[in-house]
UniProtKB/TrEMBL annotation:
This is Elongation factor P. It comes from Zeaxanthinibacter enoshimensis. Belongs to the elongation factor P family. Pathway: Protein biosynthesis; polypeptide chain elongation. Keywords: Cytoplasm, Elongation factor, Protein biosynthesis.
Length: 188
């Protein structure tokens, strides 16, 4: 058993007869009344997100997880196929267990969390950033790069990302997988 002081991003807990992964949390200590922890939980079985508030010191049942590296092979509709990089075993997961499937490129190495009790895959953790090639965007106008203006661009996985005006088709860009935002132009 853990308490609210152990809450952190990525922690898997058992709540309402389901397993949830904490995707956001905030410790709140109001001037009046007891402290509490406001959380945003994502179900690892169906992908639903819910918000919950735990009072300070509340006991939560954490789920022991183990992580393994897998390589993304391909997507077949809403089923995503991964291969273990150690023993080459393959598993198939539903799209709901991925946080940002639109940024997943074939060959990408991800970390998959497994429940140690029954070895069931819980969720897929993407790397902090991915490098993708821009396949479609409007051409940049010369001299119009001094402002923080952005334009929409489509990357090789089909995801849409807002990029600065100086980015052109064929450029490789680094994208933050947590928020899906442009970070920088990738260094070749």
């Amino acid at each position: 058993m853990a308490s609210t002081s152990d809450i952190r991003k990525g922690l898997c807990i058992r709540y309402n007869n389901d397993i949830y992964k904490i995707i956001e949390f905030l410790h709140v200590k109001p001037g009046k009344g007891p402290a509490f922890v406001r959380t945003k939980l994502k179900s690892v079985t169906n992908g639903k997100v819910l918000e919950n508030t735990f009072s300070a010191g509340h006991k939560i049942e954490d789920v022991r997880v183990e992580t393994r590296s897998y390589q993304f092979l391909y997507a077949d509709g809403s089923t995503y196929h991964f291969m273990n990089t150690d023993d080459y075993n393959q598993i198939a997961l539903q799209e709901s267990s991925l946080d940002t499937p639109q940024l997943l490129k074939e060959g990408e190495i991800v970390t998959i969390l497994f429940n140690t009790e029954d070895s069931m895959p819980l969720s897929v953790e993407m790397p902090a950033s991915v490098i993708l090639e821009v396949t479609e965007t409007e051409p940049g106008v010369k001299g119009n790069t001094a402002t923080n203006a952005t334009k929409p661009a489509t990357v090789e996985t089909g995801a849409r990302v807002n990029v600065p005006l100086f980015i052109n088709e064929g450029d490789k860009i680094k994208i933050d997988t947590e928020k899906g935002n442009y970070m920088e132009r990738a260094k070749e």
